[in-house]
Amino acid sequence: MSSTTPRPKLSQLCELCHCRKAMIKRPKNLQKICKLCFYNVFETEIHNTIVNNKLFYPGERIAVGASGGKDSTVLAYILKLLNERYNYGVEIVLLSIDEGIVGYRDDSLATVKRNKEQYNLPLEIVSYKDLYNWSMDEIVSCAGIRNSCTYCGVLRRQALDRGAAKLGINHVVTGHNADDMAETVLMNLLRGDVARLEKSTTIMTSSSGSPIKRSKPFKYSYQKEIVLYAHYKKLDYFSTECTYAPEAFRGTTRELMKNLEAIRPSCIIDIIHSGENFVLREKKIRQQFRKNPPKQSTESKGGPINEEIEVRADGSISLNKKGFVDGNRCEKCGYLSSNKICKACMLLEGLEMNRAKISIDNNESIDGAAKVVRTLEQLTF
Ligand code: SF4
Ligand SMILES: [Zn+2]
Ligand SMILES: [Zn+2]
Q1: Where does the Cytoplasmic tRNA 2-thiolation protein 1 C-terminal domain lie (predicted)?
Q2: How far is the CA of 252 from the centre of ligand 1 (A)?
Q3: Where in the chain is the domain with CATH 3.40.50.620?
Q4: Chain centre distance of CA 247
Q5: Distance CA 181, CA 171 (A)
Q6: Among candidates 113, 109, 121, which has minimal Cα distance to 81?
C-alpha cells in the first residue's frame, strides 16, 4: 500500500487477512473479505472438494464439458490452475456439444474456441446434427418448445459420452454448481421423485449403461461466487440464456430457491446437506412366481415371471420387468444401453414418425398449414 493511500478503518478490513480492505461480501457466508482472500478461499474449497472425494488420479485424462458459459469457463480455468499448483497430473481436454441452436450455441461455441487459445487446451466439438441428423432447432420446429429440454438433455448426455469415447477419455467433468444441485434436490422433492432424490447429490456418477463417469467439482460452489470469480479474473465467457428457456417446473423451483437464499444464504448448502443424508427406505419388493412353475425357468416356457412387484408408499404397485442386461448395446445405433433401444433412439424414432405424419397431413388438403399446426399441438412426448 503506498504511503499516500489512506489506511482502511478497522471495520473495513478483510475478515480473513485483517490487512487489506474488504471488497467482497461472500454470498456463501456473508463474510467481508478482500479480493485476494476471495480467490484463495474459492480455489482452496474446490481443491478440497477434489481431494476429499478423490475425483482424479495421476495420469488421468479428463474432458471438461465446455459450453462457453460462466460455470464451465471458470471450471476449465480453475482445473488448469489447480492441476499446475497441486500437481494433480491430469490431462485436460475441452469437450463441447453443438446442439444446433442458432443465435445461442453458435455464439457460445465461439467463446469456447477463444478459451481453447487462452488456456492452451485441446478442444473437441461434437454436434447433434452429425450424431443424430437432427439439430435442436429442427427438433423444436417438429416437436414444439414444450419438451425441448427433455430432448436436449437425453441427446446431450449421449453426445458427451460419445465425444469422450472418441477422445479415449472416460471421465467427463461438468460445471454443475451448488445452486444447480440444490435446485435438483428441491425439484425431485417437490415432485416426489424419491429415486432421483437419493442420487441427486452424488458428486461422481457412473451409469451401468455407460463406461463414462461424470463428476462435479463445483458441487459446493455458489453460482454467485462463480460469477464474481469470473468477473474479477476477467474471464471470457458467454452469458446469454438459451433461446429455449428451461422447463417451467425447473424455472419455478429456481425462483423458489432464490427467494429462500435471499433470507437464508446457507439454504443452498443446507439443501445439499439434506439431500446427502436422504436414504431411501428399503423397498418392499416381492418376486412374483406363476402358480405352477415348470422345471425350465425361461419366461417363454412359462417359468417364473421375470417381474418384481414394488409396493409404493401410497399402496399402489408397479411392475418392473427385467430382461435386458446392463452393458447391452442399442439395437439401432449400437451405443451402450441398458435397454434394447437407447433413450436417444427412442426419442428420435418418435420425431421421425411425427415428421412423416406432418408431411403426409401437409399434402392431404389445401388447408395443410392449419392442419400441421393442429397436428403439432396434438403431439405428445
Ligand atoms: S435450456 Fe434446454 S434446450 Fe437450451 S441448451 Fe439447455 S437443455 Fe438444451
Ligand atoms: Zn484478505
Ligand atoms: Zn441408440
Answers
A1: 328-358
A2: 16
A3: 40-276
A4: 14
A5: 19
A6: 121
Predicted TM-score (pTM) of the model is 0.81
What CATH number does the domain located at 40-276 have? 3.40.50.620
Take atom 3 of ligand 1 and give the residue whose Cα is closest: 149
Whether 104 shows a pLDDT value over 60: the answer reads yes
CA of 131 to the centre of ligand 3 (A): 11
Residue found by looking up cell 482445473 in the block: 79
Q: What are phi and psi of 87, to 5 degrees?
A: 50, 55
- For residues 237 and 68, the answer to whether their CB atoms sit within 8 Å is yes
Return the number of other C-beta atoms located less than 10 Å from residue 152's C-beta.
Answer: 21
67 among annotated binding-site residues: yes
Strands 204-206 vs 213-215: parallel, antiparallel or unpaired: antiparallel
Nine cell digits for residue 272: 445439499
Q: Say which ligand is closest to the CA of 155.
A: 1
Q: What is the pLDDT of residues 177-236, one digit of tens each?
A: 999 999 999 999 999 988 888 889 999 988 766 789 999 999 999 999 999 999 999 999
Q: What is the 244 CA–ligand 1 centroid distance (Å)?
A: 6
- 226 in Cβ contact with 74 (< 8 Å): yes
Residue 309 CA to residue 169 CA, distance in Å, equals: 39
What nine digits make up the cell of 312?
409404493
Q: At what angle do helices 368-378 and 343-364 cross, to 10 degrees?
A: 150
What is the spatial distance between Cα 98 and Cα 114, in angstroms, rounded to a whole number? 16
Ligand 1 atom closest to the Cα of residue 247 is: 2
Average pLDDT estimate for 296-303: 41
